[in-house]
Amino acid sequence: MHRKRHDILDVRDRSGSVKDLSVPDTTKRLNAREILADIQKGLPDIELMKKYGLSAKGLLSVYDRLQRAGLLDPAQLTQDRIDSESARIELNDVQTIAPVSVPFSMWTFKCGGWIFSSPAVSDKAIVFGSWDWNLYSVARETGQLNWKFRTGNVIRSSALISGRTAYIGSWDHHLYAIDVETGTLKWKFKAGREIWCSPAIGEDRVIFLSSDGMIYALDINNGRPAWRLRVDSPFFSWTESAPTIIGSMLMCGSHRGILYSADIRSGGIVWEFKASGPVNSSPTFFDGLIYFGADDGNLYALDPISGTEKWRSSLKRAVASRPAVADGTVFACSLDGSLHALDAQTGAIQWSFQRLRNLFSSPVVLDGRLYTGCTDHRIYALDAKTGSVAWSFETGGQVFSSPRVWNNVLYVGSNDGNLYAIVLK
User: Fold this and answer.
1) Contact (Cβ atoms closer than 8 angstroms) between residue 214 and residue 230
2) Quick one: average pLDDT of 39-49?
3) Average pLDDT of the segment spanning 230-255
4) 9 exposed, middle or buried (CB, 10 Å; 0-12, 13-18, 19+)?
5) Is the full-model pTM beyond 0.85?
6) Which residues contact 262 (CB under 8 A, 6 or more apart)?
7) Rounded to whole angstroms, what are the CA distances from 86 to 35, 59, 278, 364, 379?
8) 325, 361 in Cβ contact below 8 A?
9) Residue 68: band (very low, low, confident or very high) from pLDDT cuts 50, 70, 90
10) Of 293, 330, 383, 390, most Cβ neighbours within 10 A?
């Protein structure tokens, strides 16, 4: 006797009509027409899983069988659907969202490309970059365009505003200094390769890391190089670790897995700390410790003076975003869709928040609330003490941009090409 296969025959009978669908990880037989209609209506994965009692693996099995039967076009499965990696997460591991105080969008501004860039906020303007090659300035209160400045390639970096100048890196290899009021170019400097991460400012120098493996320090007024320091290979050194300034020292990660401390004035290395994987996470300094994550799945706490390790905590998957710290707790996202709260002095995990999609956005803490974006298209607001969801706000695309909060309004970009201003209740 041949064992029956769970394949196309479970979707269509011999006449070609659609019939019930059997799924290996559930005892129920699913109505194929019903679940197909729900998928085509755009019902989110988590809602499909709850409605039909499926695990993530079971839902992937449904998608596969419907496609093989010719009932579901792969184009209908947009990039926000689960993948085989996230299918390891079972439904019971994912927290149910029960919004209690949902904010509303005050305004949106539409540009011509994805917005990975995190917004920089000033008294009157929001400045951000886009994959459409432009740096934008929009009015903070209304979202009306003030100006846009076109670079020569994608802007993945986030802008830094200091005084009347916005500094931004582009994949065209240039760091630009732009007048915040007028959008005119003050100066530009060409590095050896693309600039992925955001610049920092210390002691009249603007400092950034390029994909050519160099940290550059430029005169803040004219862009002339003060020094450069090689920290990575000139051939492959993609990293998104932005420099952090602590007094006269800077801290910056590298693709080779080293966190560097260097003197701002001379560029001389003060100390090096070796992790077990690339350091894409930007360091955070708080209350005498420096916190950062690495692709080895660890979150680290170091003494900023000596580089001595105080503790490390395994979060199991790569930590690519910048940690946030408040009230004795450090918050960090890992690439299994988790956001963790850890004791800032010991590294002990206090709670974890789990999603089905990845969290690349760096969390922000304000007044007991933790805000972060997710590739499931949503912005989440969590209780910082418990990790429970206060509310979520759905955009039209994946959210890699990190939120910024100013005067009770949250500003964030999405890969639907919109910058959102969300009023916080």
Assistant:
1) yes
2) 67
3) 87
4) middle
5) no
6) 215, 229, 249, 250, 252, 268, 269, 270
7) 21, 11, 22, 24, 19
8) no
9) low
10) 293
Burial 54-93 (b: 16+ CB within 10 A, else e): bbbbbbbbbbebbbebebbeeeeeeebbbeeebbebebee
Contacts 24+ apart (CB under 8 A), 385-392: 386/351, 387/95, 387/339, 387/341, 387/351, 387/352, 387/353, 388/95, 389/95, 389/97, 389/98, 389/99, 389/353, 390/99, 390/100, 390/101, 391/99, 391/100, 391/101, 391/102, 391/103, 392/97, 392/99, 392/102
Better-scored residue on pLDDT, 99 or 212:
212
Beta bridge partners of 69: none
CB 74 within 8 A of CB 67: yes
Q: Domain-by-domain residue ranges, the chain?
A: 8-93, 104-423
d(CA 326, CA 54): 38
Which one of 2.130.10.10, 2.60.40.180, 3.40.50.150, 1.10.287.130 gives the CATH number of domain 104-423?
2.130.10.10
- Average pLDDT rounded to a whole number, residues 223-251: 89
Distances in whole angstroms, Cα of residue 34 to Cα of each of 40, 92, 239: 10, 23, 45
Helix (H) or strand (E) holding 372: strand 369-373
pLDDT in the model for residue 36: 77
